[in-house]
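Please, structure for the following, as tokens.
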Amino acid sequence: MLRLLFAYLLLFAAAPVLAQDAPLSPKAQALIAPVRQALDAERARQAALPPPKDDAEKLLRMGQMDQVGRRALTGINLHELPPAEISAARKAMWAPIEAADEENLKALLAMVPPEGWFLKSRYGEKPAQAAFHIIQHSDPEQWRRFGPVLEPLVATGEVRGDLYAAMYDRLAVEDGRPQRYGTQMYCVAGVWTPRPLEDPARVEEWRKAMGFTWTFAEYLAHWKTYPPCT
């Protein structure tokens, strides 16, 4: 479960790039194939279902599409490939995930209710969380749009604080500012490393206030279980 929760936080550093028209090796294609296969299988599974009865059920299905590709990629170690092929393989691995993200975002934006967000009390916890993940996996424009809507909903319990905190940190990194809650990692010499913190002495205090179940130290230890980064 925790791997699913944090998979969307992966931030990849640059690696040597193949020529644009160079095909991936059979080994690379086989290595990244589980991502597309997982998405295709989930898409086929949903196509066989009756139409969703309401927006909550639609959000649940969209949430499955959001997570299934990311679940598959967490077990893929691109270091098995030659260094010159890693960047191209990584791009190809993420392409079907990004396509699913675009489909999800388009559908979600067409569904936004008049109150501005999918309230947990109205849609249910899992559908509301699915909506959040879709925005989290979109772009800074959407983070800036929904951030001010989501922040006051944390205090009322309509939005999970740890999820909002991840979006806050991600936007801070995007804007060139230190992160507050220590959720964002990047690759340094093959090791997943936290982005600079706003105030290391207060990070645990801020995480606790947002309802994180792990301390920052425990979170860092979790990242050590992932394959080496590139």
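Strands lie at 185-188, 191-194. Confidence is low (pLDDT under 50) at residues 1-21.
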